[in-house]
Amino acid sequence: MTTIQTLIDAAATGAVYAMMAVGIGLVFGVLRLVNFAYGQLVMAGAYALALTNGLNPALSILVCFAVVIALTMTMDVVAFRPLRRHDASPATMLVATFAISFLLQSIATLKLGVLGRTVGTLTGLNRPIGDGRLIVRWIWIVAIIVAAVTLVLLLQLLNRTSIGLHMRAAAADFRTARLLGVRANGVISFAVLLSGAIAAIVAVVMTVETPYVTSDYALRDTIIVLVGVVVGGIDRLWSATLGGFAIGFATGVLNGYLPSTGTWPFTSGVYLDSAVFALVILVLLLRPDGLFVRRERGAVERV
Amino acid sequence: MSDAALELAALEVRYGAVSAVRGLDLTLRRGEIVGLIGPNGAGKSTTLHAIMGLVPLHAGEIRFQGAPLRGRAPESVARSGIALVPEGRRIYPNLSVRENLRLGLAARRSRLGEHHASDIAWVHELFPVVEEFASRPAGTLSGGQQQQLAIARALVARPDVLLLDEPSLGLAPQLVDVVFAALEEIRKRGVSVLLVEQRAQRTVAFADRSYVLSNGELTTTFGPADADDTERLIAAYFGS
Question: pTM, whole model, 2 decimals?
Answer without folding.
Answer: 0.86
